[in-house]
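User: C-alpha cells for this one?
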Amino acid sequence: MIRLVYRPLHGSGALRNRDLRYPQLTEATGRLVATCMTTCEQLAWNHFRQRVGRPVPTSTTQKRVIISYRKTKPEYGEFAEAVSHKLGREGFLPWFDEWEILAGDSLPREIGEAFKEVYAVVLILTPDFPHGKWAREELETAITKRIEQNIKVIPVVYESGNIPELLRPLVRVDCTDHTEGAFEAQFGRIIDALNELDLNPYRR
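Assistant:
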C-alpha cells in the first residue's frame, strides 16, 4: 500500500500534527504508473543501444508480434504479459490484448487490424487453447498468413495438452518448466527465431 502523508504548515492541522492518509492507488492509476515505468525502462535501453552503436527501434521499424493465448487462468495471462514485456525490451512491438483493447472496442475489428501489419504470432498453448473461439480464429488466421505471406508462427507450450493439428508440423518452444532460468533460456529460442538468427557457426 502506498501512503501519502500531508502535514499542513499553517492552521489547526499544524497544531495537531495530524496525518492525512490517502487510500491505496486505484487500479487505473496503478496501470498508469506501470506503463510509465515500462516507458522509462525502454528509454534506458534505447540509450544503451545508442551508446554501443546498435540501431534504436522506432515506430516505423518495430515489427509487430501478436501474443495469442486464452486467459482462463490468471497465470496464463501473467505469462502472456511477461512474454510481451520481454519482446518489447528486445525491440519488437508486442500486441497484447490487455494493452490494446479497451472497453467498448470491437474485438473482431481490433484483432483484424492487428493482423494487417503482423510480422509474427506467438501462440501460447495450454490444454484449453484449442477450445477457445477467438484462439481458434487467431490460430487459423496465423496459419493462413504463414502460408500466404510467410509470417512467423511460433507455438509456445506453457502447459502440456493436445497440440492443434495445424501446429503439429511446426517446431515448438517448451516452456512447461516455469522456473525463471528455464524461461530465460527458452525465451532466447523465441528471439532467435524472430531475428532469423543463423545458429550454424560453420555456414559462410
